[in-house]
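User: Please fill in residues for this 212-position structure.
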C-alpha cells in the first residue's frame, strides 16, 4: 500500500525547532562563486510528501514527481548552474549543484567550465590574515544567481505547483549545504546520493546529510 498522501495537521508546537538546521555557511565565501555544492532540502516536519522507499527503491508520489521535474529544470532558469547527481527521497532531496559563471572563451567547452568550478574552491585562511574565499567580508548569500537564490527559486516553485494538487505542503525554512572541495569528495557524495534509497531503513531517523 502506498502511504505517500500525508494529512495536514496542526503540529507546530510539536516540531518547533526540532528539525532546525544550523547554518554551516562560510561568512567570507561568495556562494555565487564557481564551485560544486552538495545541497539537502527537507520538507516541513520531515513529512514524507514525496513517496516511499520500497525494497531499496524510491517510489515517487505525484508530489515527488513535481519535485523531480523542477530540479531538472533548474539549469533552464539559471544558466550558470549545472545539476549533477541528485535523488528525491520521501522527506528530502539531495543534489549536487555546480555553479559556473561562464567566462569568454569557455562557453563552448563544458568540461573546462566544470573542472574550473571544482578546482577554484578555496575556504582556507589567507596569509594576510583575512578570511578565506574570494570576497573578504562580502555577504555570502546575496549574489546574483547565488546558491541561495537558486534554492529559493526551487523551493518556491515546488510549493506553488504542489499546492495546486495538495494544500498543506511546505519546506523546512533552511537548507543544508557543503562546498565540494575536490573530485574525491564529489565522488563520495555521488555514491552517498546513489545509495540513499538502499540505506533508507537505516538512515531515515538520522539527519539527511552525510558526515563530510
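Assistant: Residues filled in for all 212 positions:
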Amino acid at each position: 500500500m502506498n502511504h505517500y498522501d500525508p494529512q495536514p495537521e496542526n503540529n507546530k508546537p510539536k516540531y518547533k525547532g526540532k528539525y532546525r538546521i544550523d547554518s554551516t555557511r562560510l561568512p567570507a565565501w561568495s556562494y555565487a562563486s564557481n564551485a560544486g555544492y552538495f545541497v539537502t532540502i527537507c520538507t516541513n516536519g520531515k513529512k514524507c510528501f514525496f513517496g516511499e522507499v520500497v525494497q531499496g527503491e524510491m517510489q515517487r508520489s505525484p508530489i515527488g514527481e513535481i519535485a523531480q521535474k523542477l530540479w531538472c529544470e533548474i539549469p533552464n532558469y539559471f544558466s550558470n548552474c549545472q545539476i549533477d547527481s541528485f535523488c528525491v527521497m520521501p522527506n528530502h532531496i539531495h543534489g549536487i549543484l555546480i555553479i559556473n559563471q561562464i567566462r569568454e572563451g569557455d562557453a563552448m567547452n563544458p568540461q573546462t567550465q566544470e573542472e574550473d568550478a571544482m578546482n577554484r574552491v578555496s575556504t582556507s585562511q589567507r596569509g594576510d590574515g583575512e578570511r578565506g574565499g574570494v570576497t573578504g567580508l562580502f555577504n555570502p548569500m546575496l549574489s546574483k544567481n547565488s546558491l541561495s537564490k537558486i534554492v529559493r527559486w526551487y523551493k518556491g516553485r515546488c510549493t506553488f505547483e504542489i499546492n495546486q494538487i495538495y494544500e498543506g505542503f511546505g519546506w523546512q525554512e533552511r537548507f543544508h549545504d557543503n562546498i565540494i572541495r575536490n573530485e574525491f569528495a564529489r565522488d563520495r557524495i555521488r555514491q552517498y546520493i546513489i545509495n540513499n534509497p538502499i540505506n533508507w531503513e537505516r538512515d531515515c531517523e538520522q539527519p539527511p546529510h552525510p558526515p563530510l
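For context: The two ends are 36 Å apart (CA to CA).
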